[in-house]
Write a structure and sequence with these properties.
The structure is a single chain. It contains 14 helices and 17 strands. The protein has 425 residues and is an alpha/beta fold. The protein has a seven-stranded mixed β-sheet. The protein binds pyridoxal-5'-phosphate (PLP). Pyridoxal-5'-phosphate binds next to α6.
Length: 425
């Protein structure tokens, strides 16, 4: 690992949690240079919903490269982009009666968020945007301004104005309807909150700790947007692409966002971001928002392939089936370790096991890594174990992975007990 420490910036993070050199990966498994195996409950932070080296993707990429297909296209018309657009339209948009224009931003999620915020401000001619407590939308300047966590915000000594934060659903954990709170601020001419161009939200706050908004709250926020002429941006970068069982996370709530951001798994493992814009909002002048790496053509090839998972209901049903299994196992663990006040939360194949005790989740994640499993943490204080396996994970592997987590929690708690007794003797 010396070369990484010697040359790579201090900013590196995941390598500290998972200190090995990964060499290859397939489906829901990773292998390091020593051929140690790791079950993947991390899925590249939501990028690998369809698994590592999905055979559909690999075959199509090899074919594209061998045929000298276009790699870099800016926003020129290419065959790969045409195939993706057609597939996305007929597989995703048309069956859902969705009318949107697609804009390809730079390749990472934060590029899509920047694009959405810039467009909303431009269309409405207003500077303010409302975001929510515990939101995570990326770490470039505009996205960071709508991200709640001070760990990320504090390092940037720039102007982070033009954003007002409001409490997310269930923020106070006392049943208070925070959409009414938001209504009060918008309706009161003296609240000090400027009428925003947009409200940006995640339907499930992933990085923020697996906080699931209720359908009713989402509908209330949408209604507020309509009543006050505010655009609704849904950031579906992490929990879209089938994570909750439907392609978009907001389908169950029946809301119709004005702007939707997609990234991560939309590219089938390759870097791709896109912004879906209601046609009347597509007010850009040609070339007004550009970027050299918009619409990577290899990613279009991969993205068109993985959309075939949406030709039928099989993947959706598999996600719902595996959710049931995951939730039951987590509830069993919550019962078993109830002295540590755990809480299970999530939807689809994104779940969190929250432990209030400082540092406990981090120790469990390290222990699980030593036992052959990757799991990430979420929440402002890393107080949530974040279960995010590829959607295509085999049932046996999911169960095996959950067994590793259970054993890891037990081992960490046993160590704590032993230390406590040691101290008392
Ligand atoms: C909801 C959401 N929005 C935006 C982003 C930023 O994406 P990226 O890290 O690709 O810039 C993330 C990343 O985790 C995310 O979860």
């Amino acid at each position: 690992m010396r070369i990484f420490e010697q040359l790579e910036s201090q900013v590196r993070s995941y390598v500290r949690h998972f200190p090995t050199i990964f060499n290859r990966a397939k489906g829901s498994m990773l292998y390091d240079e020593q051929e140690n195996e790791y079950i993947d409950f991390f899925a590249g932070a939501g990028t690998l919903n369809y698994g590592h080296n999905n055979p559909l993707v690999n075959e199509a990429l090899i074919k594209h490269i061998q045929a000298d297909g276009i790699l870099h296209g800016l926003d020129k018309a290419t065959s790969a982009k045409k195939n993706f657009l057609e597939k996305f339209y007929y597989t995703i948009m048309q069956p859902r009666h969705m009318e949107y224009k697609l804009q390809f931003s730079g390749p990472t999620g934060t590029n899509a968020v920047e694009t959405a915020l810039k467009l909303a401000r431009m269309v409405k001619g207003r500077s303010n945007v409302i975001a929510f407590t515990n939101a995570f939308h990326g770490l470039t300047m505009g996205s960071m301004a709508v991200t709640g966590n001070s760990f990320y915000r504090d390092e940037a000594f720039i102007n982070r104005a033009n954003v007002a934060f409001m409490p997310y659903d269930n923020y106070f954990r006392d049943g208070m309807d925070t959409s009414r709170y938001l209504y009060k601020f918008l309706n009161d001419k003296s609240s000090g909150i400027d009428l925003p161009a947009a409200i940006i939200l995640e339907t499930i706050q992933a990085e923020g700790g697996i906080n699931v908004a209720s359908d009713e709250w989402l509908r209330n926020v949408e209604q507020l947007c309509r009543d006050f002429d505010i655009l609704l941006i849904v950031d579906d970068i992490q929990v879209g692409n089938g994570r909750t069982g439907s392609f978009f996370s907001f389908e169950k709530a029946g809301i119709h966002p004005d702007i939707i951001t997609l990234s991560k798994s939309v590219g089938g493992g390759l870097p791709l971001s896109l912004v879906m814009i209601k046609p009347e909002l597509d007010q850009w002048r040609p070339g007004e928002h550009t970027g050299t790496f918009r619409g990577n053509n290899l990613a279009f090839v991969a993205a068109a392939e993985v959309l075939s998972y949406w030709d039928n209901e099989n993947l959706s049903q598999a996600v719902i089936y595996k959710e049931e299994l995951l939730r039951k196992e987590l509830e069993k663990m919550a019962e078993k370790y109830k002295d540590y006040s755990p809480e299970v939360r999530g939807r689809g194949l994104i779940y969190g096991l929250h432990f209030p005790e400082n540092g406990l989740c981090s120790e469990v994640s390290s222990e699980a890594f030593n036992r052959g499993l990757l799991i990430e943490l979420a929440g402002a204080d890393d107080e949530v174990l974040k279960f995010l396996p590829p959607l295509i994970i085999e049932e046996e592997l999911l169960i095996k992975g959950l067994g590793i987590i259970d054993d890891s929690i037990q081992a960490v708690l046993d160590k704590k007990e032993a230390m406590l007794h040691g101290d008392q003797q």
